[in-house]
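Everyone, describe these structure tokens:
***
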Amino acid sequence: MTVVRNSTSHEERTATQSREKGIELVTLRHIERVNDTIRLMRLYSTRQDHPIKFLAGQWLDVFLPGLSKAGGFTITSTPREAQPEKNSPAYLELAIQKSRNPPAQWLWRPVEEILNQGLRVRVGGDFTWPPTTLNVDGIKRLVLVAGGVGINPLISILAHLMRQQHRKRPDEIVFIYGTKASGSQINADEILFLPRLKALLDNDAASRLQLKLFLTGVSNEDLGRARGLPPDTVAGRITESDLEESLGEASMRDGTVCYVCGPQVMTDTFVEFLASRKGMTKERVLCEKWW
């Protein structure tokens, strides 16, 4: 993630989480604008015979030239894309939000200054699929709740799951995404990962995938004029009723697991609410705290 609420460094905040021992060498070879505040970047391994392994949901320690402390950025691509294939070199994708955080500022320098730069990275993080604390075979319904750039680990998890054989993923997946949109002319292509979500929804394998998009900063009239939004799009915030509905029937919730990632207040509130619902337990509500 890239939004920092205090002066504690990424490495200090995540000191208790799992980390690989090795440092990997990569090259920043692709930079793509999503909107005025978010860039997508692809890091290519300098050794294509040595793929970088990670679990969906993990992040990178990114060591940048001239900075004493590493930045922490979630990997938004899938583990499969980190494996080299014929005519398709391996890469790791990051979504970098513009902020005052020094590593984010470095990665928001003019493209010509940073493109093709060599960087050092290290994989880490415990907010992953498969979950390390649960029996994955018992998960029948997976609820993914994203707020803003909190979508980063969840898009990796969802895309990874949708590429799995049916028997290797939950029977039902509910993806709830709340984010800001601005202006009366909504550009769906500038909403972070919305085109990717729509493509996953249109895939033949997505018969059990539900996507619910919540846009703040717009009106129902704005939605009526918009093009390219998924059918289940709402003007407003995610409510407790929406969360309750996402869990399914109370009598069937012993196989329901939730992943939540977003701003601090949202995450804390949603985790507490979901864990308190009938048929749920706090062990089956997982979250990423990146602030």
In short: The first strand starts at residue 24 and ends at 35. The first helix runs from residue 10 to 13. The helical segments are 10-13, 102-107, 111-114, 151-162, 194-202, 220-225, 240-246, 264-276. The radius of gyration is 19 Å.
